[in-house]
Amino acid sequence: MPTFPTLDAWLTYLQAAQPVGVDTDLRRIAQVKQALGFSLDCPVITVSGTNGKGSTCAILETILLHAGYRVGCYMSPHLRVFNERARLNGIDAADVELLEQFEAVERARASLTEPVRLTRFEFATLAIMRLFAARGLDAVLLGAGMGGRFDAANIIDTDCAIVTSVNIDHADSLGDTREKIGSEKAAIFRAGKPAICGDPAPPQSVVDHAQAIGADLWLVGRHFRYAAQPGNERQQWSYLGHRRGALRWRP
Q1: Other residues' Cβ atoms within 10 Å of the Cβ of residue 58
Q2: Which of these CATH numbers, 3.40.190.10, 3.40.50.970, 1.10.540.10, 3.40.1190.10, describes 7-17+26-239?
Q3: How many angstroms separate the Cα of 72 from the Cα of each of 25, 55, 59, 64?
Q4: pLDDT the model gives residue 128
Q5: Residue 132's closest CA among 159, 97, 84?
Q6: Quick one: DSSP state of residue 122?
Q7: Angstrom distance (rounded) from CA 186 to CA 169
Q8: What is the Rg, in whole angstroms, of the alpha carbon atoms belonging to the chain?
Q9: Total H helices, total E strands in the chain
Q10: Are the C-beta atoms of residues 152 and 125 closer than 8 Å to each other?
Q11: What region holds the Mur ligase central domain (predicted)?
């Protein structure tokens, strides 16, 4: 089993070893996750969308931290260093923490009867999820890398899913219309769980998928809204429509 003394060496190895192209199948990463044997035993919020994923995760992370919760936040890409992708209580994960998890993922991958190949993103996603699982967190935020249906983050059955916006991007992989892309992003929704869409003109495919699986859909402008306050940077939120129960939050 290969092992490396630095995070940069691991990332270089993974980039060279990863399969070519995007594999539209979560079975490989699910096999390795099962071999790792971890679970996220806390509420999970998964965020997808063409734009706004990072801002949404950052806002949610700040709110939860100020409320006193222990929070793990996974987002990509990073701005300066890879460690920014894994934040624990608002602090980037240390190299030594990530090295331990990278080695664990490689052991699990190699232990399979028929070892599978993972993309660098899939490998890193498993490593960071396992790090979060080991920390006994109160909440985990997962930002999808691309799309949603076959994104590595979608191996977790989320407690709340957010689609921030839907625009044309990654058309070769996700489709060349907002309806097709919306369908891919809405695949992070789960039956009976809150599903939030922040696009003011959501593709019908997002609404249809939520209804088809029985997700609790919230649409901006219909079920909630927000407005900037004149003369300052504050925003005011309001909730519309019928009363709904809050997401159960385990302290």
Answers
A1: 16
A2: 3.40.1190.10
A3: 26, 15, 13, 10
A4: 98
A5: 97
A6: H
A7: 15
A8: 18
A9: 8, 10
A10: yes
A11: 47-191
Q: What distance in Å separates the CA atoms of residue 53 and residue 46, rounded to the nearest whole number? A: 10
Is the distance from CB of 137 to CB of 42 less than 8 angstroms? yes
Mention every residue, 6+ apart, whose C-beta is less than 8 A from residue 232.
none
Indicate whether 219 pLDDT > 80.
Answer: yes
Rounded CA-CA distance 180/170 in Å is: 11
Buried b (16+ CB within 10 A) or exposed e, 216-234: bbbbbeebeeeeeeeeeee
Q: What is the pLDDT of residue 248?
A: 54
Structure token digits, residue 30: 């699910």
The encoded tokens of residue 78 equal 């990073």
The separation between CA 137 and the C-alpha centre of its own chain, rounded to angstroms, equals 16
pLDDT digits (tens, 9 = 90+) for 21-62: 556 789 999 999 999 999 999 999 999 998 999 999 999 999
Count the alpha carbons within 13 Å of 84 in the hemisphere toward its beta carbon: 10
Amino acid symbol at 225: R
Residues 242, 32: Cα–Cα separation, whole Å: 42
Token pair in block for residue 190? 């789960």
pLDDT (tens digit, 9 = 90+) per residue, 124-183?
A: 999 999 999 999 999 999 999 887 889 999 999 999 999 999 986 765 766 679 999 999
- Coil, helix or strand for 40? coil
Which amino acid appears at position 112 of this protein?
L
Question: Which tokens sit at 15?
Answer: 């980039």
Residues with Cβ within 8 Å of residue 239, at least 6 apart in sequence: 223, 224
